[in-house]
Amino acid sequence: MSDMTVKDFAVKVGRDVPRLLEQMKEAGLQHASENDAVSEEDKRTLLNFLKKSHGGDESDTGKSRITLTRKTRSRIKTGERGKTIEVQVRKKKTYVKRSEEEDKPKAPEPQHSGPRQLVGDMAEAEAETKAREAREAEEKAAAEKAKAAEEAARKEAEKASEQAAQAAPKAADVDVPELQIEEAPSNDDMPPAPPKEGRSDRRTAPPKKAAAKNKGRRDEEERGDREERKRGGGKKAKRAERRGGRRGGAGAGNGKHGFQKPTQPIVREVSIPESISVADLADKMSIKANEVIKAMFNMGAAVTINQTIDQDTAAIVVEEMGHKVKLVKDDALETEMLEGISYEGDEITRSPVVTVMGHVDHGKTSLLDYIRKAKVATGEAGGITQHIGAYHVEDEHGGVTFLDTPGHAAFTAMRARGAQATDVVILVVAADDGVMPQTVEAIEHSKAAGVPMVVAVNKIDKEGADFDRIRNELSQHGVISEEWGGDTQFVHVSAKSGDGIEELLEAIQLVSEVLELKAVPEAPGKGVVVESRLDKGRGPVATVLVQNGTLKKGDIVLAGLHYGRVRALTNELAKQVDEVGPAMPVEIQGLDGTPDAGDDFMVVADEKKAREVANFRQGKYREVRLARQQKAKLENMFSQMGQDEVAKVNIVLKVDVQGSLEAIKGALEELSTDEVEVAVVSSGVGGITGTDANLALASEAIVVGFNVRADAAAREIIEREGLDLRYYSVIYQLIDEVKQAMSGMLAPEWKEEIVGIAEVRDVFRAPKIGAIAGCMVVEGTVHRNKKIRVLRDDVVIYEGELESLRRYKDDVQEVRSGVECGIGVKNYNDVQVGDKIEVFDQVKVERSL
Ligand SMILES: Nc1nc2c(ncn2[C@@H]2O[C@H](COP(=O)(O)OP(=O)(O)OP(=O)(O)O)[C@@H](O)[C@H]2O)c(=O)[nH]1
Fold first, then answer.
1. 459 C-alpha to center of ligand 1: Å?
2. Whose CA is nearest to atom 14 of ligand 1?
3. Which candidate, 725, 671, 678, places its Cα nearest to that of 697?
4. What is the pLDDT of residues 662-709, one digit of tens each?
5. Which of 88, 309, 327, 569 lies in disulfide reach of 313, CB 3.0 to 4.6 Å?
6. Sorting pLDDT into bands at 50, 70 and 90, what band is 480?
7. Residue 739: which of 674, 676, 792 has the closest Cα?
8. Pocket residues for ligand 1 (CB within 6 Å)?
9. Percentage of residues in the chain having pLDDT higher than 70
10. 729 and 830 in contact (C-beta within 8 Å)?
11. DSSP 453-516
12. According to the per-residue pLDDT averaged within each range, which of 150-154, 197-201, 481-485 is highest?
């Protein structure tokens, strides 16, 4: 190409020599003869000239040519009164197919040969690289031309700017080199245009919508970047690369999409806390929760998105999904803090802590009161005792601390919180009454807690005492007196006269000696919360029992979910003290809230850490509770047996009548096999109470109600703690379900669900209709066509159907909670005020094993 002459060039581009020479001359080239050499530079000069002088293209008709048109708009400032006008630039570009052009070198020359054609010819004549250069040059020319056109069109456009703005067409979406003239928003209300230099800024600034879109894009990018970062990719570099790709568009020759699909699975290290919700676990693996649910389902566990699963299960899921597991202990801070406390030192023998239990009216309170009055105030002239939930007595036998909340309700409530505050239980049995249901319950509770007992046979001053009967009855429940060869001391007392009280205290000392109760007085104080309340004047006040070490005024204390610096210590004599040692109760002030009875407390060194741990516990509390809910379910019993080698199914059983109690208890216990033991940890006649629920919680038992229901307190605990409560009315069904759970079979497919409860407020009797109960629906909805039961004192007394359900005089199909209604029970006329009518449904239960 380098030694091409004008003649050769003319042949190549299909022009005659004189015409070409003329055009070259016009372009400022010095060529005069057909033999003059034409260099590449010359060709470019000619091309530029032709472009300049013939900006527009007239005709392109041949199929071998592709014509692309593009309109661009821009705004310029006129300089007059701050007006702006809109300039529209139309651009056309022709590409000529090379092969066809080569085929017709001798084609007749058109009358007026357009520069475009010439450009095409030249581009075709040049090598591929040269063609690109030519295009670049063309762009340059186009830009210049646009500028010229702007100037030329200014005046006209000034008038027509408004219409032109409205008719703004879309830029042709063609694959042409991107022009540097960008579209301006056609907005008439634009603020006065800034000076020219500022214009480009304005043009490039995205409008609001676009900005929002860009933000969306950025978010998307950031999400992508997070992935990248995890893979070790350089965030900024990648982002810049992608942005470049997008903004550069086709012109940059990089039309790739920003997102790059990973070519191989990404293995993440997933840190799993002790419990985690399915949603959070999915989030940690950067997958959808559905995938986790699906994976778990395939592994045989049906879970929901909000369900909390334990660490082990989560670890299996994570491994199953191909990621690495990193187990994290949530309470690392707490453990570290607690492990930092030393309880080493010289041990001393500490006093025993005693709880008094027994049947109603057998004299628990009287006994505690007698001992307090007789012993506490000793030596304290006119000493006035105050009830702080516990008190301590000292006499020649040694000291004893009594927990001053008689009955097993408090005992089980504490145990349910994992506290073992009691060393010895005094079982009070009235000599004239013998063993009663609550006596039996008390025995069960102390046995479940593994606490030794001393039996106080009370009211010996009364006539009709039959000691042998009591010994006999108690022996049937596994409490055998020493006289009969057992290991339980029986002491005859009178809480009224005080007879036998000394012997009782002596007996307690004897038991405690066997227990070898030790403590280190110089260690920091720790123990258990006995009770707490919010005092109007003093703020949160808690009675704590120091079990080890010494609690001092000014100590920083962590108690359950709360913490604080001890401002004051008050003992049972209402005296301010500076410190209390092991086995002593004391009331403390200074906590930031009221801990629960049974919560542990300890003196810690660092207030900041105490606060952190308290905060962590508060957050963790809910999680732990949710995770625990899964644990004591009948359905899960079998699966746990394999895992944790739990070979015991604990049951708290309440029934309607004594007859069923024996039958059910016997039948349940007979289910025990070599591998699995069924233990009825507590049983009794009557509704399910808060105590039953607490006992179930403490012993991880299932609560079974046979024709009885849970009262409000029990329901609250059961719901809060997620205990498994089951109601039955057919013995066979009860036994069958426990058997199924034991043998690892699936949960029953059908279950009863209580859908509504109405309370009977009034009863009307009509001769023809019978009894109509005026009721208030207190829970759920009462349905006309569902089955019902009548409950009296939470015990089922009738099961059947409704005869009628009315609102005023209208028959209705259902009545919602908080609404009054009239209920007629079919074939049953003995409804009484205070009864409850429960409406239930048979629902299908998903098999979960
Ligand atoms: N005669 C006689 N009566 C007693 C004795 N101990 C208690 N009582 C009476 O028995 C009744 C019940 O005594 P409490 O101490 O209230 O019995 P409790 O076991 O605490 O009863 P609850 O608090 O209802 O569980 C009271 O009227 C006492 O006066 C006793 O040793 N002899």
1. 8
2. 363
3. 725
4. 888 888 888 887 777 888 888 888 889 888 888 888 888 889 999 899
5. 309
6. very high
7. 676
8. 358, 360-366, 406-407, 458-459, 461-462, 494-496
9. 68
10. no
11. EEEEEE-TTSTT--HHHHHHHHHHTT--BGGGTSSBEEEE--TTT-TTHHHHHHHHHHHHHHHT
12. 481-485
- How confident is the model over 36-76, as pLDDT tens digits? 888 888 888 888 887 776 654 444 444 456 666 666 677 66
For ligand 1, atom 30: residue with the closest CA: 459
Residue 745 has pLDDT above 50, yes or no: no
Residues 375/502, Cβ–Cβ less than 8 Å:
no
**Cβ atoms of residues 467 and 431 within 8 Å:** yes
Pocket test for ligand 1, best of 366, 408, 499 (most atoms within 8 A of CB): 366
Expressed in angstroms and rounded, the spacing between residue 362 Cα and the centre of ligand 1 is 5
> Which protein residue's CA is at the shortest distance from atom 25 of ligand 1?
360
What is the C-alpha R_g of the chain?
46
Distance 365 CA to ligand 1 centre (A): 7
Ligand 1 pocket mutation pick from 356, 357, 360, 365 by most atoms within 8 angstroms of CB: 365
Give the mean pLDDT of 181-202.
Answer: 40
Q: What is the pLDDT of residues 365-422, one digit of tens each?
A: 899 888 888 876 554 444 556 778 888 888 777 889 998 776 677 777 777 776 788 9
pLDDT at 261: 62
Expressed in angstroms and rounded, the spacing between residue 426 Cα and the centre of ligand 1 is: 15
Annotated binding site: 358-365, 404-408, 458-461
Q: Which helix (H) or strand (E) holds 685?
A: strand 677-685
CB 559 within 8 A of CB 600: yes
Task: Tell me the residue type at 649.
Answer: V
Most distant CA atoms of the chain, gap in Å: 152
Give the number of the atom of ligand 1 that is nearest the alpha carbon of residue 366.
15
- Residues contributing to the annotated binding site for GTP: 358-365, 404-408, 458-461
Helix (H, G, I), strand (E, B) or coil at 766: strand
* Cβ neighbourhood burial of 576 (10 Å; 0-12, 13-18, 19+): exposed
CA distance 134 to 96: 13
For residue 500, the CA-to-ligand 1 centroid distance in Å is 16
